[in-house]
Amino acid sequence: MGGLAEFELVEGDDGKTVLTLSGPYLVSSVGAIDQDLRALEGPIERIDLSDVSEIDTVGAWLACSVSSQHDAEITGASDRAKRLLGALEGISSDEEISAPRAPFWERVPEAMGDKVYGARRGVYGVVGFLGALLLSMGSLIRHPKRFRWLALVRQLELVGVSALPIIGLMSFLIGVVIAQQGAVQLAQFGAETLTVNLVGRITLRELGVLMTAIMVAGRSGSAFAAQIGTMRLTEEVDAMQTIGISPMEALVVPRIMAAVLMMPLLGFYAAGVAIVGGAFVGQFMLGIPFWTFLSRIQDVVPLHDLWVGLVKAPVFGLIVALAGCYHGMQVKGNSEEVGRRTTMAVVTGIFAVIVIDAFFAVFFTEVGWG
User: Fold this and answer.
1) Which one of 31, 173, 313, 339 is most buried, by most CB atoms within 10 A?
2) For 188-208, what is each residue's pLDDT tens digit?
3) Which 8-state DSSP code applies to residue 115?
């Protein structure tokens, strides 16, 4: 027998078909034969448990199920088996084990109501967070000695200086793609020289600062959420409050200021590198000399396009930093919440940036900076 649960169909002395069970019928051993036992075809008049070495509730339940399926009598049960079988007697196995599910026309409105209620709670949380941030900044203005300059400088380095390589590479490649694809399309109308206009205006006005904001959201916004979230999880934020240090002043304000201050510089840098990438394409594909391409930018790109990008940049930085810090401060419970809130910080930050960019596009068109 070994340590395996086994069964065998035999013919008894009275000519009836007997299902003989043998070996240990425990939760750890019956899984291998469960499906085979339930698939047996009748008729089975008797189930013999005399060769069963050990049995637990699961083994007894399996024997009861087969007995009920074939309306067979159980014989040869030990005292322990009899007690377990007696406890299971009268328990039906055909009860519904899945939770009841409401119909479609009830589930959808209920789910939508939950989403709306959750959105309302989220709006309350954001408004409360903004209020706490404004109070903290007002307190720092009244007591400037409490401001943590070293924390600000550290965040300026992390948000700005450390991001220069990846933002530069991304912007250069975007400039190359815009110039190459734009030249291909404009060539159909014999207007390849307008590639300079396309690259200059779209990078300075839109893509430079927008792609920078997306990169900062994925890089720094997620870091803000993960860092503050981990501090919340390890109760460091609670410890700061206990010793009289405001988490908003120590953690949130330096990060938000760093993002707001660095975004215009990063956006201008990204636009400049993208224009350089377009100039490389002009040099090797369009026959436009590199320096001629750059000098033409000054003639064809109006100055207000530069101002449009510089005005949007700090707003985008504020949105990204707010999303990261807010979701970091909402972490509670377990480490899984850190990952979830970090993901939410990136997604909400990018979504809000794109929505605000659409409003900026309409606004600047209305004021004559189209």
Assistant:
1) 313
2) 888 888 888 899 999 998 899
3) H
40-80 confidence digits (pLDDT tens)? 877 788 888 888 888 888 888 888 888 887 778 888 888 88
CA nearest to 220, candidates 266, 173, 273:
266
Give yes or no for a contact between 41 and 15, defined as CB atoms under 8 angstroms apart: no
Q: What is the pTM of this model?
A: 0.72
- Comparing CA positions, the residue from 271, 362, 370, 359 lying closest to residue 315 is 359
Amino acid letter, residue 290? F
Instruction: Estimate the crossing angle of helix 195-202 against helix 253-281, to 10 degrees.
Output: 170
CA distance 110 to 102: 10
CA–CA separation, 333 and 331 (whole Å): 7
Answer whether 236's CB lies under 8 Å from 212's CB: no
Q: Within the chain, where are the H helices?
A: 34-38, 57-70, 79-88, 104-142, 149-159, 164-187, 195-202, 208-216, 222-233, 236-242, 247, 253-281, 290-300, 303-329, 335-366
State pLDDT tens for residues 318-353: 999 999 999 999 998 888 999 999 999 999 999 999
DSSP, residue by residue, 246-304: -HIIIIIHHHHHHHHHHHHHHHHHHHHHHHHHHHHHIIIII---HHHHHHHHHHHS-HH
